[in-house]
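Q: Sequence in, structure out?
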Amino acid sequence: MPRQSITLTKQNDIWLKCHVEEVQDYSNKSEIVNDLIRRARRAEAINNKLEQAEQSGFITQSAVELLAEFKAELS
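A: Exactly. Output:
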């Protein structure tokens, strides 16, 4: 796996250390960073698919209109 060097803000470094040392969700900072990148890539892929679907003409409602409709149905 390629090694990278990154610079973190103090707040981000503290947050990463907390999740390694106190929360113990991960065994090291690299695991957290890789997980965050995986999640961001997944979210980006989902957003791209949603945008493609919205632009395909399959639906006429925008994302905002769909969200409003879903919220109205929950009320």
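The chain has three helices and no strands.
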